[in-house]
Amino acid sequence: MANNKYGVLLLGGYRTHQENYALMFAADPRCQLIACSDELDAPADRVELNMQLADELNLPYITDLDQALALTDVNIVSLCVEMERRGIIGKKCAQAGKHLYLDKPLALTVTDAELIVQAVQSSGVTSQMFSNVYCPWAQLAKKAIESEEIGQLRAMHCDVVFAKGHPGTAPVGRKRQEQSSRDKYTFIQAKPEMFDIGVYAVSIINWLSNKAVKTVSGVTANYFFEEHSECNIEDFGVLMMSMEDDITATITGGRMGWMSHPKGGIQRLYLVGT
């Protein structure tokens, strides 16, 4: 570590969550921002946004990611590139011996996620995906389980639904068929909300139970927004999971419109014990 600080390389610029993560790393006395970078063949519009963030933070922009990863003063990579590129780039960063701080969701496909997981395990680096596990309500739930205040955990339900967007525009009667995989995540006007927001609830459930998921069933739909329907992606969904020790968990995830909640949206957790 240079100057006894963790050097942080930023991948991803404006119009990502990197705008916030970079400021948090910069404010941490243990860290020092080193540079911004991306792949040589990164999309031109993304490179422009990357360079804008680099200019705002007064950081150098390194056009070749391989050169950036070769810097000895880089210890951590904050990874916020588009979902479609995250698996390959995450693998490359881990193989270069850099610790990973990953925006959520982890990756677009199971294959991409496994690329990251396997590279992290084989390289011995540390990785962390952004989640809500340190929120006060999640910490209280963890305490209730570990102290056996609720007895033995039998079931959980978690709602994470954002209050964003202008609802009431979803076409009535139009139904879409959910697919087991998707090739595209990044749209200008919308995101696949169960995929994007449901990860918060899933990560909470996994962290609280510390049990393996055995089966998953789910339903997605388009209740609120025309733009999601036009992109053939969901704005809401539910999942049911059966887990080890006969624990059942359910979640909802999505967005319901900016007037649906007085703050940022519903974040709610139910625990059922013996």
UniProtKB/TrEMBL annotation:
Residues 139-273 form the GFO/IDH/MocA-like oxidoreductase domain. Residues 18-128 form the Gfo/Idh/MocA-like oxidoreductase N-terminal domain. Signal peptide: none annotated. GO terms for molecular function: nucleotide binding. Pfam families: GFO_IDH_MocA, GFO_IDH_MocA_C3. PANTHER family: BILIVERDIN REDUCTASE A. This is Uncharacterized protein.
